[in-house]
Design goal:
Elements: H1 3-33, H2 36-41, H3 46-49, H4 52-62, E1 70-74, E2 77-93, E3 96-99, E4 107-110, E5 117-118, E6 123-127, H5 130-201, H6 206-234, H7 248-259, H8 261-289, E7 292-294, E8 299-304, E9 318-322, E10 326-333, E11 345-350, E12 358-365, E13 375-382, E14 394-411, E15 416-418, E16 422-428, E17 433-437, E18 439-443, E19 447-452, E20 460-465
Antiparallel strand pairs: 1-20, 2-10, 2-14, 3-9, 4-6, 5-8, 6-7, 8-9, 10-13, 11-12, 11-14, 12-13, 14-19, 15-16, 16-17, 18-19
């Protein structure tokens, strides 16, 4: 019966011993290994586990092989540099391009996001082009029909020319036959008259005279028949009888043009219609290409002002920052104009902490002075490829002056405290350290510029050396 209480007591003692050993071990490790930043971040642990006067002294005495631990102190750094004036500035695109879509319609697809870097000619968005494509198919069919009509009209024209050539050559042949028949008729008529004279003198019989009269009548009839046939051929041909100076081939060319003008006009009309359809196809292809909005320059998409499925309007659909270049814009008073000039190097310090300062050059000085504020606009072109800086961010532009000033600088790791309780540094004294509250501002990335509260003679704790 008495064994159970004794067992519980032994278990309790064992737990207390384990907890004691664990507490001592954790206190030793926390005292020896924790740095100032860890102790400032978890101040409630310092009262329970931090014993620098005992454990650090014990460590120095008992562990002779290990490196000594202690606080490192150093005096502030004095820097003499040009005096600087600062101006609040806003980051803005160096060159902003507002993109409008030439075709109105419903947005089918947007291929980029805000903040995307795009190349020149890259497709940004696409508009629904179904109606334009249907019109293109209709024009393609009309093109095939028109080409067939041109071919048919051309063949009709050439066939008409051939028929005119055949008729003209028949007319020419008939004309030769008429001339020959006329000569034969005249010869026969002269011969008949001579025979009549001989008959009257008794040298020729009446039978021979009658025979000659029949021959003359036959020649006359043949002549008149040829003339009638030629007139029938001429009735369907338009001939210009004033072309006396031209050869037959020249006349044939003129007659061919005159008598095939209708077929030629039909051919020219079909060609004009074909040309109109081809121009409509080119216009349709242009409209089809304009349904895709392409980047006019390489750069970064700042803003997309439309969504998929919406109808386009007259407002810009996107805003592009050319080449991704950024500038900082600010205003200066007229009294500071003598310190700025295009090409002067300046420094831009972003308002966000832990962002490095950015070099820049004065790019443009405004062309007029605001009469109300007596200020003028300045634009600074920042160094390219700034991935952490976005348009709209605030910061300070520092402009160096010819005058020089002295600055007291300390490492950023020496700073303790917060905005609520105040910022301070640990300063070495004859007996230990003491806190000194300071006023400061950031200087570059790893240093602070002391405005008040510290002198060059003070030795400031910087880090814990192991």
């Amino acid at each position: 019966m008495n064994s159970n209480p004794m067992t519980k007591i032994r278990i309790l003692v064992r737990k207390l011993l384990v907890m004691g050993v664990g507490y001592i071990l954790f206190s030793v490790l926390y005292t020896l290994l924790s740095n100032v930043d860890i102790r400032n971040r978890f101040p409630f642990l310092v009262g329970f586990f931090y014993f620098p006067n005992y454990w650090e002294t014990m460590n120095e005495v008992s562990a002779m092989e290990s490196p000594k631990q202690g606080l490192v102190f150093q005096r502030p750094r004095l820097l003499e540099e040009n005096k600087v004036i600062e101006f609040p500035a806003v980051v803005e695109p160096t060159k902003e391009i507002q993109l409008h879509n030439k075709q109105s319609g419903r947005i089918r697809k947007i291929y980029v996001d805000e903040g995307s870097f795009v190349k020149e000619g890259q497709v940004l968005l696409e508009i629904d082009d179904e109606l334009i494509r249907l019109e293109g198919e209709r024009l393609s069919l009309a093109l095939n029909v028109s080409e067939s009509q041109v071919t048919i009209a051309f063949e009709k024209w050439k066939q008409a020319e051939k028929q005119v050539d055949v008729k003209l050559r028949e007319i020419d042949k008939k004309t030769e036959l008429v001339e020959l028949a006329e000569k034969e008729w005249i010869l026969s008529k002269d011969l008949k008259e001579k025979k009549i004279i001989l008959w009257k003198q008794g040298f020729v019989s009446l039978t021979e005279v009658e025979k000659l009269k029949q021959e003359e009548q036959s020649k006359e009839t043949q002549y008149k028949n040829l003339i009638r046939d030629r007139e029938n051929l001429l009735s369907g041909i338009n001939l210009d009888l004033e072309l006396e100076d031209l050869s037959f081939e020249g006349k044939l060319k003129v007659w061919r043009e005159k008598n095939t003008s209708l077929e030629k006009s039909e051919y020219e009309l079909s060609k004009s219609h074909l040309k109109i359809i081809k121009n409509q196809i080119k216009s349709n292809e242009q409209l089809l290409s304009e349904t895709r909005l392409r980047a006019p320059k390489s750069g970064k998409i700042l803003k997309i002002q439309i969504k998929e499925g919406e109808l386009t309007t007259q407002s810009p659909v996107m805003i592009l920052m050319e080449k991704g270049e950024l500038s900082a814009g600010f205003q200066i008073g007229e009294s500071d104009l003598l310190y700025v000039s295009p090409g002067k190097e300046v420094l831009f310090i972003p308002s966000l902490e832990n962002l490095p300062a950015i070099k820049g050059k004065l790019d443009r000085v405004g062309g007029f002075l605001d009469p109300r504020s007596h200020s003028i606009g300045i634009k600074v072109r920042l160094e390219p490829k700034q991935t952490n800086i976005l348009p709209g961010m605030f910061g300070l532009v520092q402009v160096k002056l010819p005058e020089t000033i002295e600055k007291i600088l300390i490492p950023s790791s020496s700073l303790h405290g917060d905005e609520k309780s105040g910022f301070y540094v640990n300063v070495k004294q004859k007996e230990g350290t003491t806190k000194k509250f300071i006023q400061f501002k950031p200087y570059l990335l790893n240093e602070l510029e002391i405005l008040s509260g510290l002198s060059l003679e003070d030795e400031v704790e910087t880090s814990l050396s192991l």
